[in-house]
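Most newcomers find our protein records easier to grasp once they have seen one. Read left to right, the backbone structure tokens trace the chain's path through space. Nothing more is needed to start thinking about how sequence determines fold. An example says more than a description, so a record of this kind follows:
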Amino acid sequence: MSGARPAAFLDRDGVLNVDHGYVHRLDELDLVPGAADAVRLLNNAGYLVIVVTNQSGVARGRYGEDAVRRFNDELAKRLAAQGARIDAFYYCPHHPEGSVARYRIACDCRKPNPGMLAQAARDFDIDRGKSFLIGDKPGDSEAAAAFGIKGVLFDQKTQSLVDVARDATR
């Protein structure tokens, strides 16, 4: 009998936190309304909650990987303070047009490629048949399709993240 669990993959900027553009400073961390409630709903429904985020600002020299990790840690801390748990973060620091040579590559982890999801599947026993990805850009849905799971587009201006998460679990 498999111990596989479904995963709710969530994009970060524009889904969990407001996307102010190349968000990396802690003073820019504004949670999307309902983010903690949505993550808690997913936790309670038995989903692994895994954040997958492109962070091309690293490749563009706007900030370093330490800033990404600090931001992710603070995001997890703020959600945890409201009873919501992120099980893992995966980020892609690459961009083929980056100004930092070591990150200037076309990789398989940058969405719309499914590399971050595939890495999570190697790290966790994931039931793909019940898993999904909620993102705010078409590339998020493309990554989901490439990985063989459902993709759900979310628009924080017109939708409730809690409602979108609830609908995705059905």
Summary: Residues 7-168 form a domain with the Rossmann fold fold (CATH 3.40.50.1000). Helices lie at 35-44, 56-59, 65-80, 115-123, 138-147, 161-168.
